[in-house]
């Protein structure tokens, strides 16, 4: 067992009185100080003297700038000051979060489903805000989520997690239990969907009391965890009070292939909101600058408590123990550059037009949203672009029928209805010409329902298409041997099945 290292000496900081050690890190220690003016307690993160090479200094400065840029968000730790101590060590003065963080709680407490959802939505808001600013976190885990004095989760540790800039380094660090498969390979690559995975893995830990692929009482070496993350199905949380819809949300957010996940942190947050509505608990707002607030509670009028006022739930304060925390530390990794994008218009997947059909695409007006364009052999191909949704569909499957285009207005805010179900009774039948016709049933049809479907490929993710009927045809040219497709229901407000239905035919 590795011996616990001794903490570094707290530096003398002008206008600050050292109180005690808060935690040990791989590259920095965190101390509690009492600031003289304005009078308050603050957390001071001090770089270790032995780790001050040029790269670490650069990343430390980056952390200060990124957290200052994002710290207006209520679920991101606020940075007050950055400077160099008299002994030459760089330091950050940050908001002191006095309550136990998630790393201290998830192993020792049974966290209620409603609280886990509330934390997940607030963190999704923080992560989405970072992504819109062009910043990937890349190390979301319980140890990097503190708790403010008012009980809000507060994301921290952006320094070694992500930066913007042209000099992204090739090295990558990770916290294996919460890392997606694409960050565990020999040549790690990741994007916003990698943060979506880690955020969902963190919520899973809050519910299960363990990391997602940890075997209680079993062998859990780093090599074994990596193998399970890359190949094993996500196990159930083991809690009877976790609804199936929440398990499905977590499974989608933690899919092995990034294309199978929610396309953004905001989309994951909306999926959590739908589960809240299903459970009839108050729907937690997404704290985004352009996000409309949901109703205060997702309850029907006939619910017994529908018109009763709820009191404030008091949480007994937990006295700080002063014990340093240094588990789940992160190895050094370089920077990742991401391009800021306009926020996605809805929780649905991002679609791309294959190169072979680009010349058949009809563009929709520019603006926010997604464009659905292109008709090839009766398949409607979708392109990720701005604008209202334009649906091009062939009439009655005729090969020479001209496409018709209809436009939908921008989607309204997500509803607080229950989770969108998956299609049922999916079955395929091979036709005399070699094509395969698939049919399915919508178990809860609603006005405006459409369906996203695609042919499953052995070597990659399907190219998804949008149709308005419960029947599709896979042309003979694409239907040699076994043919498998996946189908999801898409509501008029852009909500969709949290998990697609898959079916095959010989």
From TrEMBL:
<dbReference type="InterPro" id="IPR008271">
    <property type="entry name" value="Ser/Thr_kinase_AS"/>
</dbReference>
<keyword id="KW-0547">Nucleotide-binding</keyword>
<protein>
    <recommendedName>
        <fullName>non-specific serine/threonine protein kinase</fullName>
        <ecNumber>2.7.11.1</ecNumber>
    </recommendedName>
</protein>
<keyword id="KW-0418">Kinase</keyword>
<feature type="compositionally biased region" description="Low complexity">
    <location>
        <begin position="395"/>
        <end position="409"/>
    </location>
</feature>
<keyword id="KW-0808">Transferase</keyword>
<keyword id="KW-0723">Serine/threonine-protein kinase</keyword>
<feature type="domain" description="Protein kinase">
    <location>
        <begin position="16"/>
        <end position="273"/>
    </location>
</feature>
<feature type="binding site">
    <location>
        <position position="45"/>
    </location>
    <ligand>
        <name>ATP</name>
    </ligand>
</feature>
<dbReference type="GO" id="GO:0004674">
    <property type="term" value="F:protein serine/threonine kinase activity"/>
</dbReference>
<dbReference type="InterPro" id="IPR000719">
    <property type="entry name" value="Prot_kinase_dom"/>
</dbReference>
<dbReference type="Pfam" id="PF00069">
    <property type="entry name" value="Pkinase"/>
</dbReference>
<dbReference type="InterPro" id="IPR017441">
    <property type="entry name" value="Protein_kinase_ATP_BS"/>
</dbReference>
<feature type="region of interest" description="Disordered">
    <location>
        <begin position="395"/>
        <end position="420"/>
    </location>
</feature>
<keyword id="KW-0067">ATP-binding</keyword>
<dbReference type="InterPro" id="IPR011009">
    <property type="entry name" value="Kinase-like_dom_sf"/>
</dbReference>
């Amino acid at each position: 067992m590795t011996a616990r290292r001794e903490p570094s000496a707290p530096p003398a900081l002008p206008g600050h009185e050292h109180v005690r050690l808060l935690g040990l890190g791989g590259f920095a220690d965190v101390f509690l100080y009492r600031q003289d003016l304005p009078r308050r307690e603050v957390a001071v993160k001090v770089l270790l003297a032995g780790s001050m090479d040029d790269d670490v200094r650069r990343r430390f400065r980056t952390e200060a700038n990124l957290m200052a840029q994002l710290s207006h968000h209520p679920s991101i730790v606020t940075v007050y000051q950055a400077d160099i101590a008299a002994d030459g060590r760089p330091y950050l003065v940050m908001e002191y979060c006095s309550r136990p963080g998630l790393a201290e709680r998830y192993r020792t407490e049974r966290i209620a489903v409603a609280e886990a959802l509330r934390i997940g939505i607030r963190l999704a808001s923080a992560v989405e805000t970072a992504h819109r600013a062009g910043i990937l976190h890349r190390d979301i885990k319980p140890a990097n989520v503190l708790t403010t004095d008012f009980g809000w989760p507060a994301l921290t540790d952006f320094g070694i997690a992500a930066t913007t800039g042209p000099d992204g380094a090739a090295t990558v660090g990770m916290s294996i239990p919460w890392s997606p498969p694409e960050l565990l390979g020999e040549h790690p690559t990741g994007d916003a969907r990698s943060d979506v995975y880690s955020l969902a893995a963190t919520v899973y830990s809050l519910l299960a009391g363990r990391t997602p692929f940890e075997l209680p009482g079993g062998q859990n070496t780093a090599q074994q965890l990596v193998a399970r993350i890359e190949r094993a199905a996500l196990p159930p949380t083991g809690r009877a009070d976790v609804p199936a819809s929440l398990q499905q949300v977590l499974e989608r957010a933690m899919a092995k292939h990034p294309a199978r996940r929610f396309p953004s942190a905001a989309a994951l947050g909306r999926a959590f909101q739908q589960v809240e509505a299903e459970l009839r608990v108050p729907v937690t707002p997404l704290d985004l600058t352009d996000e409309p607030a949901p109703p205060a509670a997702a309850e029907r009028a006939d619910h017994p408590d529908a018109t009763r006022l709820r009191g404030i739930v008091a949480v007994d304060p937990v006295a700080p123990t002063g014990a340093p925390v240094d588990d789940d530390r992160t190895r050094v990794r370089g920077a990742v550059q991401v391009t800021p994008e306009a926020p996605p218009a809805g929780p649905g997947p991002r679609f791309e037009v294959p190169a072979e059909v680009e010349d058949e695409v009809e563009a929709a007006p520019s603006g926010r949203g997604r464009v659905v364009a292109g008709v090839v052999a009766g398949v409607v191909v979708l392109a990720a672009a701005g604008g209202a949704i334009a649906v091009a569909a062939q009439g009655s499957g005729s090969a020479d029928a001209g496409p018709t285009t209809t436009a939908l207005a921008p989607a309204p805010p997500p509803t607080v209805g229950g989770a969108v179900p998956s299609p049922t009774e999916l079955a395929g039948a091979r036709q005399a010409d070699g094509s395969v016709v698939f049919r399915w049933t919508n178990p809860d049809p609603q006005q405006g329902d459409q369906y996203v479907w695609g042919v499953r490929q052995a070597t990659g993710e399907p190219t998804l298409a949008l149709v308005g009927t419960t029947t599709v045809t896979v042309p003979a040219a694409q239907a040699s041997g076994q043919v498998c497709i996946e189908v999801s229901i898409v509501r008029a407000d852009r909500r969709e099945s949290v998990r697609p239905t898959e079916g095959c035919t010989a």
